[in-house]
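Box 3.1. Reading complex inputs
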Amino acid sequence: DAGVIQSPRHEVTEMGQEVTLRCKPISGHNSLFWYRQTMMRGLELLIYFNNNVPIDDSGMPEDRFSAKMPNASFSTLKIQPSEPRDSAVYFCASSPETSFTSTDTQYFGPGTRLTVL
Amino acid sequence: GENVEQHPSTLSVQEGDSAVIKCTYSDSASNYFPWYKQELGKRPQLIIDIRSNVGEKKDQRIAVTLNKTAKHFSLHITETQPEDSAVYFCAASIIRGKLTFGTGTRLTIIP
């Protein structure tokens, strides 16, 4: 099992540019999560998909952020236009979510370190 | 929404001693409490978790206790080793899938 795969691992861009982060969840997992980690705010859930459908996007900071999951094996998080305050490590996680009433283990990817100059 | 507080923010213990990290949560409906370990530059990895129908769970040197009445849970690491040095995060879940994380504890094991 390859685990959750994220690309790129590092991204440096200039303010105003579009940034696209990519994630491949563990095969068979039906839930996917995007998190952002910063020193100031810690680990924050941005958006959560179940069976490719966005369930909760209340953590998405603003309209500059968007996320899609076109199929069970791929998701993107896009920032357009990017700003220096978006600099952070972005993690994708997936979970099997086998129960309808309780939470299953979330497995994190290696993260993408984004720097916006 | 759920709020999770974690203490202490930093903790240094002598190798071989025990370490305890505590978390409190705000919503009594929370029913799942995982602990993650994150080494420098790495991803968070689950080390142990507990559900609300259990008061304690142990896995070798690691144990977690849950007090639903007081709404707090704790991570206990015994016989600490240098490789235990990392940042530890607690989390709580009310709604299926949605985790709220604590702010993290940086644990340093002194050889």
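In summary: The longest strand of chain A covers residues 42-50.
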